[in-house]
């Protein structure tokens, strides 16, 4: 007999308990696909497995569809989280474009087949690792969700995770057997030259062009080791990994770019655009940073992003505050970065802001529609989830999204990497080529220990 006390309108039941110390690798290995890793530079690391509910949207207004499905899912959910970090959240992402699909591999499939225009999961099992301890959350949703079952599963998952015998040893990088470019140097230069012509004719102000690099790996990619390595080299970045429902593919990376975070009515975002390499010495690093700070081309490229973000946020906010422009120094590159904050005038969900901001001219261009058209006509591959929003939403509509850069889509023994650059009036095709190669490095370095930094 069904007890009415164990049911609620949305059928969401979530229970949490504290876990002894654990790690990304132990949790990742113990959980079942589809697994998700979300590791922001500050705050809790989440490793999740399985789906208590899946929200997918294709074409149409995917941001609104996901927002209303998320709201319905959380509506009067029965949640005993124990601590805020352990509360259930949906995690997922969007594709860069709505309704992609022009790129086909020789077998007729697209590498992005497993990644629809939007997919968010409410994880069945969520491990949250914070500075103050780890938590296990077990969730079920739907007509058959029962408190008793969720509590029983919470104990069973606790036993499984605490009994997990992960050796903690990291597998070595898979190694790179072969690489194939989707864009030759000649094609790249001619695309940039034709974009420069359009800029000259005032049809465009900025466009971001990307390249893809297909890698055959020598061994299988181990996502947990790969993400551990990315975390060590890029502590100031957002690490993410989203497996397909069958666990056959994973989209992962370590991106420096936050699209937006919303907590209550406080919005935090920023402009990240303008790039230069790292030096061999602190003095050379500083010299390069100074070049970046004073270079008019990079300043222009950057300012276009600041302006667009301010403009997109202004209808929602009484005031938008722009901080000082500064340098974000990462292991392989340095960027210009301007923090931007705003206070909303009304209660809104984070997905409304994602919809308003994506794609910023850091990954699309100015004017946006013409830039997107130019990207579509020029790039010979689908961006899929590359350069698109990935993140989470909670029951209150709060959330945080990053722009999925410095990323790759992997299917066991193959990985496709993506990297893009902003083209403005005085861009030089050779310099832009070199900049794209630098942006492949974060992922290349974790695929192969011996990978050369200067590969062209
Ligand atoms: C498009 C990428 O990066 C973006 C473009 C940048 C630029 O053109 O300077 C800098 C940071 C990102 O906003 C990428 O990493 O693929």
UniProtKB/TrEMBL annotation:
Annotated EC: 5.4.4.2
Comp. bias (Basic and acidic residues): 177-187
Keyword flag Isomerase: yes
Keywords associated with the record: Isomerase
Uppermost EC category: isomerase
Single Gene Ontology MF annotation: isochorismate synthase activity
InterPro entries xref list: ADC_synthase, Chorismate_C, IsoChor_synthase
Region described as Disordered: spans on this chain: 159-187
One GO BP: L-tryptophan biosynthetic process
Top-level lineage group: Archaea
Reaction(s) catalysed by this chain's protein: chorismate = isochorismate
UniProt biased composition (Polar residues): 163-172
Pfam families: Chorismate_bind
Keyword hit for Lyase: no
Domain Chorismate-utilising enzyme C-terminal per the UniProt entry, residue ranges: 185-439
Family to which this protein belongs: Belongs to the isochorismate synthase family.
PANTHER family in UniProt: ISOCHORISMATE SYNTHASE ENTC
Name of this protein: isochorismate synthase
Higher taxonomy: Archaea, Methanobacteriati, Methanobacteriota, Stenosarchaea group, Halobacteria
